[in-house]
Specification:
By secondary structure, the protein is mainly alpha-helical. Helix content is 87%, strand content 0%. It has one domain (5-264). It is globular and about 65 Å long.
Length: 266
C-alpha cells in the first residue's frame, strides 16, 4: 500500500487551507469591519471547550450504553441525536460566551463576525491542518517500506490492526476528496457567521429577541442532522457538500435580513 503524489499534494493544499481560512477571515473582518482579536479567540475557546471537549465526552458516554448502541446503529436516530447535541452544545457555548464574557465587545457589532471567524476557524484548523498533517505523516511512513516494517514490528497486535486500517483508508481515498474537505469547512464557517448573528442579537437585544437563541439551536441541529441523512440516502459526498453549502447560504441570507432589520431599530 502506498499514497500517490497527487493524494499527498491535495493533503498539503487542504492542510494549508486549514491555516488560510481562519487567518484570512480574521484579517478580513479586522480590516473591513474593525473587529477585535478578543472575540476571535473567544470563538476558538468555545469551539474547543463545548464541541471538542464537553460534547465529545458526552458522546463517548452515550455510545457506551445500550441506548447509545441503538442510536449508533440507526441512521435516523444517529442523525437526530448528533444534530441536536451539536446545536445544544455549540449554541449554548456561543450564548454564554457572548452573554457573560464579551459584554464590552457587544458595543461593536463587528465583533460578532470576529467571534464567528474564531468559532468556525478553529474547527477548520483542527480538521484540515492537524488532520492532514497526521495523514501526511502516515503517508510518508507508508511510502517507506523499511519504516513501515519497523512500525509493525514495534506495535502490539491491536495497534498493528489500527495502523493497517489507517493505511488502507489513506491508500484508497481519492485525491479530490481532500480538496472537497476545503469546501466543507468553508461552508461550515459560513454557517457559523449566520448562527453567530442570531445569537448575538438574542444576547444584545434580549426580551422578545431572546428567541433567536433557540432558533439558532434548531437551525444548527437541522443542518447537521439533515446532512447526515442526505449523505446516507444519496450516497454522494459531493452532493452532500453542495447541500450543506446551499444551507449555509440560506442561513446567512436569513441572518443578514434579520441583522439589517435590527440595525434600523437601534
Amino acid at each position: 500500500m502506498t499514497v500517490t503524489t497527487s493524494q499527498m499534494t491535495c493533503m498539503v493544499v487542504a492542510m494549508l487551507a486549514g491555516l488560510i481560512l481562519p487567518a484570512g477571515t480574521l484579517l478580513f473582518v479586522r480590516k473591513k469591519l474593525g473587529a477585535g482579536f478578543k472575540s476571535f479567540f473567544m470563538g476558538c475557546l468555545v469551539m474547543f471547550l463545548f464541541a471538542m471537549a464537553l460534547e465529545s465526552h458526552l458522546h463517548k458516554f452515550v455510545y457506551s450504553t445500550t441506548m447509545g448502541q441503538v442510536i449508533w446503529n440507526n441512521t435516523v436516530l444517529y442523525a437526530l441525536y448528533g444534530g441536536l447535541m451539536a446545536g445544544l452544545f455549540e449554541e449554548t457555548g456561543r450564548f454564554l460566551a457572548i452573554r457573560f464574557t464579551m459584554k464590552n465587545e457587544l458595543e461593536k457589532d463587528a465583533n460578532a463576525f470576529s467571534y464567528a471567524a474564531g468559532h468556525g476557524g478553529f474547527e477548520a484548523f483542527c480538521i484540515l491542518f492537524i488532520t492532514m498533517m497526521n495523514n501526511l505523516t502516515y503517508a510518508f511512513i507508508m511510502n517507506d517500506p523499511a519504516r513501515t516494517a519497523q512500525i509493525y514490528e514495534n506495535a502490539t497486535q491491536e495497534q498493528a490492526e489500527q495502523i493497517k486500517l489507517i493505511f488502507e483508508q489513506l491508500s484508497v481515498t481519492p485525491a479530490w476528496t481532500y480538496l472537497l474537505s476545503i469546501l466543507e469547512r468553508a461552508s461550515a464557517m459560513l454557517l457559523q457567521f449566520g448562527l453567530t448573528a442570531f445569537v448575538w442579537i438574542a444576547v444584545k437585544k434580549g426580551g422578545k429577541k431572546t428567541w433567536f437563541f433557540p432558533i439558532a439551536i434548531a437551525i444548527h441541529a437541522f443542518i447537521d442532522a439533515s446532512m447526515i441523512l442526505v449523505n446516507q440516502w444519496i450516497g454522494n459526498v459531493f452532493m452532500t457538500e453542495i447541500y450543506v453549502l446551499i444551507g449555509a447560504v440560506v442561513v446567512c441570507t436569513l441572518a443578514r435580513t434579520v441583522w439589517k432589520k435590527e440595525e434600523k431599530t437601534n
